[in-house]
Specification:
By secondary structure, the chain is of the alpha/beta class. It has helices spanning about 5-20, 20-50, 60-65, 70-140, 170-185, 190-200, 205-210, and strands spanning about 145-150, 155-160, 165-170, 190, 210-215, 220-230, 230-240, 245. It is built from seven helices and eight strands. Helix 2 (about 20-50) packs antiparallel against helix 4 (about 70-140). The two termini are about 55 Å apart.
């Protein structure tokens, strides 16, 4: 059986290309550890080189007599630092590419929504959004891990942006969204976490990045009511404009 070395080489090359940040970071960490080991081993030799009967040595004399013992330490340290820097650069390039792809996807989604609005009208577009939220609930049913019940008499609410279920007073929820709309009118942007603050929910990492820019116009709430397991009423939160990356 003939071994296809070219195919194997391409597979190995693609693996290293895909995993280059992790590999470079691992090499950088390992190199830092080696630097410490080299330094520990070099120190006794440096001390012995300085043990020439003199009580004191000038700094320049110390360097002249001991520098060669610390060459492996220096090389290892500089190489490790270069690996970590290159790893960071790869991450930055990939994040930039992801941001560009996200921007294209967001633009395509907005174009799709605009076309749907023109073809279907606002009423049918709202029905489409409601169906989308219901589908999100079906794909992420409530579990003990993602459900937070505060008061049993409150309405069960589903937040598609965090995948959480929680109980909340419907009137207070409407007031929070209305207050968010007023805040967006007066400020440059509002974050999703600011909305979570208004409804007393824990902040999320995504909530600090996602939000709404005032320049893109106002937002309005989109509520979708459904029954979980055909018996438990649930209200899903949605917005006329999806929160996007506000700092991009």
């Amino acid at each position: 059986m003939k071994i296809n070395w070219k195919c194997i080489g391409q597979s190995v090359g693609k693996f290293f290309q895909r995993r280059s940040p992790e590999i470079l970071t691992g090499l950088g960490i390992a190199g830092m550890g080696l630097s410490v080991i080299f330094a520990v081993k070099a120190t006794p030799k440096a001390i012995k080189a300085l043990d020439d009967g003199q009580e004191k040595h000038k700094p320049i004399e110390v360097v002249k007599k001991t520098w060669k013992y610390y060459v492996p330490t220096t090389v290892s340290f500089l190489t490790s630092g270069a690996c970590i820097i290159f790893s960071s650069n790869v991450h930055l390039r990939r994040n930039a590419a992801l941001a560009a792809a996200y921007s294209v996807t967001e633009a395509a989604l907005q174009d799709y929504r605009s076309a749907a609005r023109d073809m279907l009208g606002e009423k049918k577009e709202s029905l489409l959004e409601e169906k989308s939220l219901k589908k999100s609930i079906e794909n992420n049913p409530p579990t003990p891990q993602n459900t937070f019940i505060i008061k049993s008499e409150d309405t069960l609410v589903y937040d598609p942006w965090s995948g959480r279920y929680f109980s909340y007073d419907i009137d207070l929820l409407k007031a929070a969204i209305e207050d968010l709309s007023y805040q967006l009118r007066d400020e440059e942007f509002v974050t999703l976490n600011e909305f979570y603050d208004k409804i007393h929910q824990d902040r999320t990492y995504a909530g600090e990045i996602l939000g709404w820019n005032a320049a893109k116009g106002p937002i309005r709430p989109v509520f979708t009511s459904t029954l979980l397991d055909h018996k438990t009423p649930c209200l899903a939160i949605g917005f006329s404009r999806d929160p996007t990356e506000i700092f991009r």
